[in-house]
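User: Quick sanity check before I run a bigger batch. Here is a single chain. Can you write out its predicted 3D structure?
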Amino acid sequence: MICPYCGKIGNKVIDSRLSKDARTIRRRRECIGCGRRFTTYEKLEDILPMVVKKDGRREPFSREKIISGIRKACQKRPVSVARIEEFVDSLETYFQELGKKEISSTEVGERVINKLREWDEVAYVRFASVYRQFKDISEFMSELEQILKTKQEKANG
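Assistant: Done. Predicted structure follows.
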């Protein structure tokens, strides 16, 4: 491990701690060259499936891309970063455990959109407007009407 301060390779581990989910180890290190301390994280390498896009292209499963999309949808909404991270952790685990080499982008998108529907209606609509590629305001209104109808049905029991 290269020291981020002086660039030397030699260092020693001072402390190691396991994360809550036991999937990551946090290590405090001290550089032998300059004596400064820094933190590293060790994580088991995940073998995730390729995502098959609607146009047939294939790309690696991207945790960062999913988090980015959810964060944009949840901007200025009461959804915590921790909640988003936990959901994406569970999404990664789910797709790993499926054992498939490829998954459709639709399957990923539907899982995300369903979770957003549970969390926050505004975030859901924001994500849906991009994900479902509404072509005009009538499609957008139709989605809003569906949300209102579902909300009213729940209120009436």
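The radius of gyration is 21 Å.

User: Great, the batch can go ahead then.
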